[in-house]
Design brief:
By secondary structure, the protein is of the alpha/beta class. It has 13 helices and 13 strands.
């Protein structure tokens, strides 16, 4: 682990370090330094068609990097600093490698005090995708980074457990109707209320499959791959206990994860081994905060298979949770 000041010194030199944000830990480097950005892609094994989110310390700093419109001003005034990234027309100062060749850039002001302090000391924007090998589960604690990268683990600032636990909401404000490209903790309803208008969404399965098929085509936003956020251990996703029973797919050496304690009790009553629950009462925010850490910890147990039962409706924060689970389960 390294100190905040050590991180600033390393970043200034063009090095890459892992930093805490309120969403997940990020693999950070100077966003305007092409050689540094190349290091980020190399360390993660990330395809060049998958753009990065640029983090900056304020709306004023963001205006140096992209064209801010009225929608962006409204969202920034209500949700920045915070877990939402906006896709906006980029200015020439932003290297094409950061945006995967797109004429837009995803940008946000993070809420975590450590990350914000580093941004203010640097006075430069940072590109910071999640601090994990490409497509693997995102880390929400400093110790996860070592588990994910092993001997190739980057220098890391320990900022405690991520408060949100899921990557930021991404909304495209570059043209037409504001459209959510990746759901997150800031929900569609909150954004619609903020803007005073309906907010669009992508037909996610169609969009993700298309991005996955055409490896030469850049995604408009990070986090749109058909397989993403995935543990090494195969993961089966079920939307009810009944669906889990009907699958008859549980075997010795498997583990069970459930969204709330009452489901764990129901599983136990059937005589199966104790399961891990993500929330005592099914609170979506608690499930989101605990999801990735549970997947990483269960992955370390080297089980044959994970079975995850999530019974929440696909609305609000639950939509973001299901988005991550479907791609982690490769469905």
């Amino acid at each position: 682990m390294i100190t905040l000041d050590d991180a600033v010194a390393r970043l200034t030199k063009g090095d890459v370090v892992a930093l805490p944000t309120e969403t997940v830990y990020g693999l950070a480097g100077l966003a305007l330094n092409i050689e540094t950005v190349k290091k980020i892609f190399t360390i993660k094994g990330r395809p060049a068609t998958n753009p990065l989110i640029v983090h900056t310390s304020s709306l004023e700093k963001a205006e140096e990097l992209c064209e801010i419109n009225d929608w962006a001003n409204k969202i920034a005034s209500q949700f920045w600093p915070g877990p939402i990234s906006m896709v906006l027309p980029k200015k020439d100062i932003v290297p094409n490698i950061v945006t995967a060749g797109n004429e837009t850039v995803a940008i946000r002001v993070p809420q975590h005090p450590v990350f914000l302090e580093i941004l203010k000391k640097l006075e430069q924007p940072l590109a910071a995708p999640s601090a994990n090998p490409s497509n693997r589960t995102s880390p929400t604690e400093a110790k996860h980074i070592k588990e994910l990268f092993e001997e190739n683990s980057p220098p890391t600032v320990d900022g405690g457990k991520a408060e949100v636990g899921l990557e930021s909401t991404v909304i495209d404000l570059s043209a037409g109707t504001p459209t959510i490209l990746r759901p997150g903790m800031i929900t569609r309803t909150e954004l619609a209320n903020c803007l005073g208008m309906d907010v669009g969404t992508l037909k996610s399965k169609t969009q993700y499959k298309q991005v996955g098929k055409d490896t030469q085509s850049s995604a408009p936003s990070p986090g749109m791959q058909p397989i993403h956020y995935a543990p090494k251990t195969p993961l089966n996703l079920y939307h009810s206990v009944g669906e889990f029973w009907d699958s008859q797919n549980f075997d010795t050496g498997d583990v069970i994860i459930v969204s709330e304690e009452k489901i764990a009790e129901e599983i136990r009553a059937k005589g199966l081994p104790d399961s891990t629950y993500l929330s005592a009462d099914g609170c979506p925010h608690e499930i989101a905060q605990n999801l990735y850490s549970t997947l990483i910890e269960q992955d370390a147990q080297k089980a044959n298979r994970m079975h995850l039962i999530f019974s929440g409706a696909s609305t609000g924060v639950n939509w973001a949770i299901l988005d991550r689970l479907r791609r982690a389960a490769r469905t």
